[in-house]
Fold:
Amino acid sequence: MCYDRYVFRKSLAGSITMPPEFFRKGFVRNFTNTGESARLNLLSQWLPTKNHPKDLQSACHMPEDISERRKNSKAVDSNGPIEVTCAIIEKNGQVLAAQRGPAMAMPFKWEFPGGKINPGETPENCIIREIKEELGVEIQIKTMLPPSSHSYPDLYIRLHPFVCRITHGRIKPAEHHAVQWTAHDRLLALEWAEADVAVVKSYLNYRIGKQGI
Structure:
């Protein structure tokens, strides 16, 4: 059981029974990374109406040790970019785009699926792991595109894009609101998360070069 999930269960003190789906990876991650008012709104979607509002407030309180951990994490991140991978998954002339959920930062924006590189993990191993966790499929890396950096108001990330293909499994999104296969000439029509815009353009340039146009 992950640490965030354990602390959240502990905060309920056994007074509220949650459905198993609540504790899937994506929802717990989003829950523990949002403010208390946002958590209250998210949790209210899962709790039966008989629960008193004070139960919600109690469950949505972020324990001190998690708050401190988040603070320390930001301090570390300020020393350099957060290294993140993303997968540009190709199939039959189309590319897979994933839409962020309502509980995520930049809700309903589109992005290439992926995630943060763990300490000691290679970008290649990271993207294979992340896609397995997020989409439930195994992938093969075709090539890596140049990294792309982007600064958000409170976040500086460096994206490592990989062009990939699915080798096994059927897509079952664990945390995204939706996924869709998109034709190359329609990619720029989607409302992308800001950091992914440069990746989309880099990928389109890669395709032009590949075709020798």
Q: What stands out?
A: Residues 1-18, 22-34, 48-77 have pLDDT under 50 and may be disordered.
